[in-house]
Amino acid sequence: MFCYQCQEAAKNTGCTIRGVCGKTDEVANLQDLLVYVCKGLSFVTLEAKKQTINTEKEDRFIVKSLFATITNANFDPEMFVKSIKTGIALRDSLKSRLQNVRFEHDSVLWTGNGKEEFEAKALEIGVESTDANEDIRSLKQYVIYGIKGLAAYVEHAFVLGYEDRDLYVFIEESLVMTTREMSVNSMLDWVLKTGEYGVKGMALLDKANTSTYGNPEITKVKIGVGKNPGILISGHDLKELEDLLEQTEGTGIDVYTHSEMLPANAYPQFKKFKHLAGNYGGAWHQQLKDFEVFNGPIIFTTNCLVPPRKDTTYNHRVFTTGVTGMPEWTHLTKQLPNGQRDFSEVITLAKQCPPPTQLESGEITIGFAHNQVLQLADKILDAVQSGAIKKMVVMSGCDARQKSREYYTDFAQNLPKDTVILTSGCAKYRYNKLNLGDINGIPRVLDAGQCNDSYSWAVVALKLKEVLNLKDINELPIVFNIAWYEQKAIIVHLALLYLGIKDMHIGPTLPAFFTPNVLAVAKEKFGVETITTVEEDMKLFGLN
Ligand code: SF4
Ligand code: SF4
Q1: E-only strand ranges, 367-523
Q2: Centre of ligand 2 from the C-alpha of residue 89, in Å
Q3: Please, is 17 exposed, middle or buried when counting C-beta atoms within 10 Å of its C-beta (0-12, 13-18, 19+)?
């Protein structure tokens, strides 16, 4: 295996024996092969579209497959073997319906049947086997990781009934592009184009979420526990939460959100459910300790899963849905006649479990997505113009387990009192429980929601630019200090680059898939830098 798609890549160069994330060599190779199968299927799908053949099934398969390969989404080799077989079958069936076309690329022509053949093939097509030119390989992987993140957003929107065909075409064209000879300049254009589609994908998902569940509004969320048995729901899929809330209403079971599901508490449609009891625990990587004491069942609707330890006691209480999977945990596939996910197995188990053990108490305030922030725009503008707010710091992104991430807590704590943090994604768990106070009634931590809701900060920045009549978005008193971990963060970062945001700091380390030349270009063209120390960065951002 060779994998360097996330921030935890071993030695910041790449995992080669076993993933730091816990991914086995076998799963890593099967994931590479599934992406390869998607490349072959994309060749055929794009051609079928030209011949006006319906490719809905194939488009969705590609999106779900890419999503399944993002960091910490799926650790189950059997699920990947099954997906590879499905991909080959879809490709060959669609190919047989095409007129007058010959494919030459191996990803369309090769075939295999079963784990052994797949494993052998996977060794030929891994990341390191592509492009001899390391800069081109790096830029291609940049695009691939971007479209993996984009695929996650496309899938979330799809389950709520929202689609944009252009996004499928772009994802498929990008996969095919990676099989071609490309120059550095054309790759740089493609990287920015990925950011452009990232903006489209985030806008689509924002529309899907807000049209379905209303606009998030300022909300105080309890972080303690009640006396009823509970179900903990994690991940980013709001539809799964809706189905669960409907099926648990009146059963005496409380539902708690976990990690990136926290922002759901701010949507008007979810607030109607009185048994949505609050948020439990911290960011995804704390699940090993949080799940032990939650006592009830846990549902993973999307990434970020952590493989259980040998002495973990909760394996029988964890359920996965959608593209997620872990060999030790039960995967839910059944649907009710009304099309909802069938959570009856989880509900039965919850009734037999004791209530969660209290971890902490109090409340956190969330719900500052763009609609809510723009309603406060006058207040914010007054504070900016009067100097009460000197700077806003976007600290969106991901959290993870490395000690170096304490930087973000220290950074938040050391910010001058006339600064406001704009956040989204699970990076917020580094500082959302600190008591940072408010400025003229505006909380100093404004949480827009999940990582995909980082779109909110783009909307707010563009609006402020318009209202303040500025020529360039970079003239705003906003600085970007983004933490990254996985590929959804990569698409957010690309989207911000596309919107013209310069001098973004990312950390705690720069992507391992950047070569020195790619890094030089990112620095020169976009001012991309990595974090240093809190003191140095404060100076650099003009925050001291
Ligand atoms: S996803 Fe990250 S930690 Fe896991 S194998 Fe890849 S680079 Fe390593
Ligand atoms: S922000 Fe990133 S790391 Fe955090 S839960 Fe979401 S996908 Fe995972």
Answers
A1: 391-394, 419-423, 438-439, 442-443, 445-447, 478-483, 505-507
A2: 32
A3: exposed
Cα-to-centroid distance, 230 and ligand 2 (Å): 23
> Each residue's pLDDT tens digit in the chain (544 positions)?
999 999 999 999 999 999 999 999 999 999 999 999 999 999 999 999 999 999 999 999 999 999 999 999 999 999 999 999 999 999 999 999 999 999 999 999 999 999 999 999 999 999 999 899 999 999 999 999 999 999 999 999 999 999 999 999 999 999 999 999 999 999 999 999 999 999 999 999 999 999 999 999 999 999 999 999 999 999 999 999 999 999 999 999 999 999 999 999 999 999 999 999 999 999 999 999 999 999 999 999 999 999 999 999 999 999 999 999 999 999 999 999 999 999 999 999 999 999 999 999 999 999 999 999 999 988 998 998 899 999 999 999 999 999 999 999 999 999 999 999 999 999 999 999 999 999 999 999 999 999 989 889 988 999 889 988 999 999 999 999 999 999 999 999 999 999 999 999 999 999 999 999 999 999 999 999 999 999 999 999 999 8
Ligand 1: atom nearest CA of 3 is: 6
**How wide is the angle at C-alpha 415 spanned by C-alphas 413 and 421, nearest 5°?**
90
Query: From the CB of 485, is ligand 2 less than 6 Å away?
Result: yes
Q: Ligand 1: distance of its center to the CA of 139 in Å? A: 18
Cα 181 to averaged position of ligand 2 atoms, centre (Å): 33
Angle at 137 between CA 135 and CA 142, to 5 degrees: 95
Ligand 1 contacts CB of residue 19 (under 6 A): yes
Q: How many CA atoms lie within 13 A of 136 on its CB side?
A: 15
- Bridge partners (DSSP) listed for residue 320: 300, 331
